[in-house]
Amino acid sequence: MRALVYLAPGSAELQDRPAAQLVHDDDVVVEIVGTGVCGTDRKILLGRFPARPGVVLGHESVGVVRETGAQVRSVGVGDRVVVNPTLYCGWCVPCRRGATNFCRHKAGTEVGVDRDGTYAETVALPERFVERVPAGLPFRSAVLIEPLACVLSNVRAASLTFDDTVVVLGAGPIGMLTALVAAREARRVTVAETDGYRLERAREHFTHVVDVAGTDPAETLLKTSDGERPSVVFDTTGTGLDAALRLIDDGGRVVVMGFDDTYTVPLRPLQLTNRGIQVIGAGDYRADIFPVAVDLAAELSAAPRRPGTSTSTSTSTSTLLDRLVTHEFPLEQYPEAFAALGGLTQADQADRAGSGNSTQPPPRYDALKVVIRSHRGPVGADGWPVAE
Ligand SMILES: [Zn+2]
Ligand SMILES: [Zn+2]
Asked: What family name appears in the similarity comment (predicted)?
């Protein structure tokens, strides 16, 4: 089968790999339909998130079960499934506490990071790491279940109530999903973004959207809110903690979500104690959140359509899930897929930002969620495989 393999920072290639096979009695082989390109994939390629050279990348994926081991009970051949790529052992101390995302036996279990992932035609996994996709939830929306699980975990960590005012830094797919979920609980949600394309997309779904390009985001946001500080800030950019700490109200919570191994920020503990600020890292998600994300995705996707509007042009927030995937590419065109998100390498980013001098120019985006399709079979009008 064809598979996109990580070689070293800035370098990946399509290789021929043996097709996935059942190894254990509880394994399933999934024929991959599509995999969402994650910020983490890009950070790996930019050398800002560690991954094992030689690994097949990709982890936000949906597909169809093609083979099942003798002990498999929860899914059958032909079932549409979504992959939970956060594998865990189930018996170490954190796992027994339910904190499966902090499993002590993580090495070699992170799909698409240090265990072969899903930018490939097939993958084999224990059955407990695939969930059936509800009938009526299109693959195109189901591909967002994994990032949605991550978002649910982080929003839960913020313990939102209806009197909270929230700022979400970043309007990428994670930022948009965070704003969507937070808006179900908090009084007001404001989204801050620097990229023109993403600002436009955010304005289609949210009332309070602030352009912070070329400015200090904390100052700009305070200006637009007449000095009112948010009680909760989610930093989905991975580089916004400094701004978040200057922006947050006394007694507030800052949730750090983006990953960037190269970003550091000086922290004065007194600022936290005097002002009662909580800085929260929630990581990805515990196993019990994943089925919740499956159900919520179905709920969000099943939002009522207003009569007289076409199913795809409604700008209601509730249809965000359907509209978050803006681009799809076949596996062979992976360079284009990454290019739509700012490029594969630091040099690509510098070229696109038109400022070769700066060491970290802001990436420019022409896309929200980009999906790489692994499926060669017949596809429907929306570019996705015809229902089996
Ligand atoms: Zn991801
Ligand atoms: Zn464990």
From this structure: Belongs to the zinc-containing alcohol dehydrogenase family. DOIA dehydrogenase subfamily.
